[in-house]
Amino acid sequence: MDETCSFAAPDGMYEKLNYGQKLPYSSESLVSTDCISCAEANDQNNQNNNDQQDQDNVLEVCQRVYEDAGKCETNLNIQYKNTYGCDFIKTLPKMSHWSVPTTNVASAKVLAGLFATTTVIFGGVVMYFQRKIRNSREADLAKYDLA
Predict the structure, then answer these.
(1) Which residue of 21, 81, 90, 102 is most buried, as measured by CB atoms within 10 A?
(2) Which stretches of 14-145 are assigned E, i.e. beta strand?
(3) Residue 109 DSSP one-character state
(4) How far is residue 20's CA from residue 8's CA, in Å, rounded to a whole number?
(5) Chain centroid to CA 134: how far?
């Protein structure tokens, strides 16, 4: 098994560890690909979730998502182009379906080994000095005849 989660598990691993149960959402997506409508419903009683006062027919939540989104409208034929998001969008890495972050696992293992080694060495040094102190106290007590 891969403890760093950098490789896909073999087929059937989940079923093997979970009494034959199938991995949830392995055959269907957890996220729906269905679109939701951004058009305001014609609901007079609820006043479209109190979004009745504006003149557009777009839900406020959709309007806010669009307004807050980073845009790069350089190639659009519109009068006032919003290009504030272009530099940021260009810096985003191209993601593949099975994108795995590239981290140096070897250096982490080397540091963990170094930590373990120094811990064992310092533990041995502490034991050595503790025994030396105990032996010197016993030698000091042996000088006095307390019987």
Answers:
(1) 81
(2) none
(3) H
(4) 19
(5) 50
